[in-house]
Amino acid sequence: MNRFLLYFLISIVLLIALELLSVYFIMPFPGSQLGLDADDPSQASLGRVELAYWLHTNIGWLRLVGLLFLFYPAFRLLVKPVRKWYRYVAGGLLLLYSVVLYMVNQEMMADQLFKQPIHKRVVPMSENKIPLDKLVIGFESVGQATAYPLQLIGYHHQVRDTVGSQPIMVTYCTVCRTGRVFSPLVRGQADEFRLVGMDHFNAMFEDKRTGTWWRQATGEAVVGPLRGQAILDLPARQMTLGEWAAEHPNTRVLQADPAFADEFERMKSYDRGLSKGKLTRRDSASWQPKSWIIGVEQAGFTTAYDWNELQKKRVLNDVVGGEPLVLTMAPDSASFGAWNRRVGTQVLTFRYANRQLMDEETHSVWTWRGHCTAGPLAGKRLAPMRRAYQEFWHSWRSFHLDTKRFNKP
User: Fold this and answer.
1) Which domains does the chain have, with CATH numbers?
2) pLDDT of 145-201, one tens digit each?
């Protein structure tokens, strides 16, 4: 083989590999993300993320060096008399590299696969078109409430909004089933974020000012200048739109952007865990990687609760981080609540019988929302537990390595 063709082949293969590797470790390609049963996946995958970040930040000069090495053998193949098929091979590989360069930096970029709303519409309930049985992430600030349907934010991955004069960043990762609302302030300044990829199947965002990569499930900066810091996780709740609207009659609701009708259609069964894709489809058995759980965090302690058990028993009593907790299931079997069982100096124990939620200490009757409607404690309300999320079991255990499993040794 002509030595200049050999040099050309080596250079072009290295360039193609460079482009592919720059996205391979942070996108769901075969083998790019660690298995769900890794002993310490959040740390084991970090080396791959660090490599991806290094390639991301150095891709410019690496690409330039590769092109310089490519230039000389390409020039010799063009000006020197060589076999015609040498030039055909070289031309074909250059075309292949051009295609890879375009695909990697346009079509395969996370923020191009999952785009932000073009025409964002947030309307009052009187103008709402979202069905009441759809799950939403609800957020309230200074008396103003807004609901963000999972079917919509699951595609967008993030939606920026202002609620009660507070700027927020509503995020969702369908592969982890994690809904989070963050303050977009970084070091006290509002910043812009773009979806850059994933870390062990969880979405990552890159801030515009420093280029740091942030993990969606925890708000923690995993690589970059601000590594180790975290953006503020704001309290939000997940339930059906009907239940959210019953609590907040004046709520606003995010509407579907017509520009993404096809994408939303593919997400229509996600709420119920019936997605066709294996990365987003629910495992109906308990404690499997794709099983639904409720994860609760309190004072640095975490516990996971089986969604199937809560649906069956309707109420679960526990203690997390020294605080007495009760999880409640709404009549629709899709909405849930997490509440502190302490009322004044008294800690209550709840049971569900005869389709009623009652406490054993006073036999008062309560709603799943933590409101007492009858009995000695009528008019009392349970305080919400701030950090309670529904998500896939693999996600919660990946980023909460010391978590306990309720009713499990």
Assistant:
1) 3-108 (no CATH), 122-266 (no CATH), 292-405 (2.102.10)
2) 999 999 999 999 999 999 999 999 999 999 999 999 999 999 889 999 999 999 888
